[in-house]
Structure formats: structure tokens, C-alpha cells
Fold this sequence. Notes:
Blueprint: E1 10-11, E2 64-70, H1 75-80, E3 84-90, E4 99-102, E5 115-125, H2 132-135, H3 142-148, E6 151-152, E7 155-156, E8 159-160, E9 163-164, H4 168-173, E10 175-179, E11 190-193, E12 197-204, E13 210-214, E14 219-221, E15 224-226, E16 229-231, E17 235-242, E18 247-253, H5 256-260, E19 264-270, E20 292-301, E21 324-333
Parallel strand pairs: 5-12, 11-19
Antiparallel strand pairs: 1-2, 2-3, 3-4, 5-10, 6-9, 7-8, 12-17, 13-16, 13-18, 14-15, 18-19, 20-21
The protein binds copper (II) ion (CU).
InterPro entries: Cupredoxin
Protein name: HEPHL-like protein
Amino acid sequence: MASKGNFSIHPHGVFYDKRGEGARYEDGTSGADKADDAIRPGGSYLYIWNVTKRHAPTADDDACVPWGYHGHTNPTRDIASGLAGIGLICKKESNHFLMHVIPFAVHGKRKDVDKEFVVYADIADENKSFFFEESIQKCGQPDVCQARAVHIGIVVRFSVIYYDAGDEDFGISNEMHHINGYVYGNQPPFKMSHGDRAVFYVISLNLASHIMRIIGHTMSIKHKRTENALVNSASFLSAYTVACHPCHWLLNCRNLDHVVEDMLAFVDVSNKPVPSEIAGPGRRHGRIRKYYLAIEEIIWDYAPGLSPDNSVFLQQGSNRIGSKYKKAVYKLYTDTAFTTPVTRGDKENHSSFTATTSSGANVAPGATYRYQFFVSSIDAPTKIDSSCITYIYRSAVDL
Ligand SMILES: [Cu+2]
């Protein structure tokens, strides 16, 4: 420990006694049992963590299980200051050791995958960082920023005992929606070759939900097929995928608040000869299904059975729109003439205000575009999935 602050390290997923906990709180202990709670500047401390059979991956787990570690002298402050990382606990047969700590670096020793990546998705609140007063000196006019700053007092038992609201906009400007410490796509691209088997260790620590996905790829999480890796506070998971289609793909958080903040990175898949079941052309051995979808404008009534008694706000009037709005819907036709609609039964006719894209094409009014989607063995339901998986499609020109 060489920093100016008192900090600690608190692990997840391993065994420790009070001296290896690294978390400061009122636990009724004293003396040696408190020495791990906060290491002073210039000091050092030996944390002892054990990985016992009870902490090893189970037979049903993947070869390795990711866990997080972070500062816990004041967890909010410590994590905002940057003190977070990831560790792996692996089955013996997959490695020659059980735990390996990888602070935002790749592990690279697994035999069951070609590539390993860390996706630490979080919101770093610089207002709460131990170093905020130093960072504020980077402001063009430090005095001006200091006056706008949100001042947070000392924390006792996780409660802030004083709090100066400051300037909310300035406070928000210091909240970094990051992936591995990078915002607005500044994370260097995750590089894969076509057909690579990859695992993404997706973790989060703070109080927000992140729904991470890679466009053009499905994932397997806990042996189940999905396209979303959902992580909440202090969540750690492994998302397995196979690099499809050489291209530049978006990896981002689907939480719409975080889409607005451009919480994203990119996956670069380079070209390489691959087995036919992975390459696009090789996927065409299956049945081809053609759908002719038009995007049409309609007037949609949100409450066709509305009575004056059951809704105040949906009654149309001089100062209210009412229950009817202009919408766009996908409508299925029999062929490219787009003149004969497909009649759908009641069970199939569920409004559909939703859409799709895979190539990013922007289809202009009156134009048509042919999207090709492939369903290969690597996207299929897994052995433990139910026989069908439900996905949505939607427009993605502007979310
Ligand atoms: Cu997010």
C-alpha cells in the first residue's frame, strides 16, 4: 500500500477469517482482527485467503468462475477511487492452480477457450473518489469547479454525515459510465479471430444494472443461450461466445440510461478460415424462411374499451391527446409486392411495436432492404435450454 489514503482489499468467493476480510465496519472486533480494515500510507499487510473445496467451482460450473475484489475501508469511496479488480477460481483440471488475480488484465491460460476478456461495467462517481480534490485541480479554473463540487463528508457506518448538494450538472459530469475505466468507446477493441471461442468475464460493483451484449453474437451463460449478460451490484459472470462474421461489432450496455451515456466498447473480429457451421455461407444448409415485413404507420388505440369512469388521463379533450397515438408497426405480407397481408391468428397478433437489424442499414421510406439472419449450431438452444428461445426484433436506427 503506497497511496496517500487508508485503503484495504476485500475479496469475494474465497475463505478468510476476520484478519483477511479487508472490510471496515462495526463488527465488535479489535486488535489484530481490525488490522486488515485500513492500511495506512506506506504500510503493508499480508491478507491470507484460502480456496477450499467449498469455494471451488461445482461439477455444473464452468472451468473457471470469476469473482471481484475491491477496497472496503470505505467501499463507496474506494471503488470510486479505482480500487477494484477480478480474480478467477478454476477447476484443477483446467489449470495448474486454483486462483489467479488479474487486475484488468487477461488470464490467458485456459485451455477450453481461445480468448479471455474482462468487461468491468460500472459507474465511477468521481465526486466520491478519495482523489477528487486533486482531480479538481485539473479544472480550467479550479476555484470555479471547487465551488460547483458536490462535497461529501466522512462516512460512518456507511452513512454520510454531511452532504453539500453543490451543482447537480457538475456532479453528473463527474459520473463516468465506463467499461474497464473507459468511456465513450475508448476501451481498446477486444480482438478476436473468426471462429475463436471467447469468454467475457462481466462484472459490476456499484448500484446499477448493466445489460451487456455484443451485437451479432449470442452468448452462453451458466450453459444457457442468451444475448444479454445482466450484472447487478457485486455480480460476476462468464459469458461465452464464438467470434462470428469478421467485422467491427458493438459491445454495449442496453440499459437505456446507459445507452444515452454511450457506455460501449467494440469487438473486432478478424478474418480467418473457419469450419462451415460457423461461417455465414456454411450456415445456409438449413431451411430458409422468408418473411416480407413492411413498416407501416397506423393509429393505435391504447385503450379501445375505455370508459369515462376508468381513466382520467386517457380521455381525449382540449388539453389531452387521449388514448390514440400515431405509431409504426411491422406488418407481414405474402411476397415482395407487399399487397396481400398475412392473416395472423389471435395468438400471433400481439401488437408489435418492436423491430430488428443486424447490419445497421437505414431503410428509407418506400425502399426495401433484404436482411439475412442465420441460425447456426452455435446460436441454438443448449442442452439445458427449453426447446425454444424467445427473442425480440425492433428498429434500431434511433433507440
Ligand atoms: Cu449499464
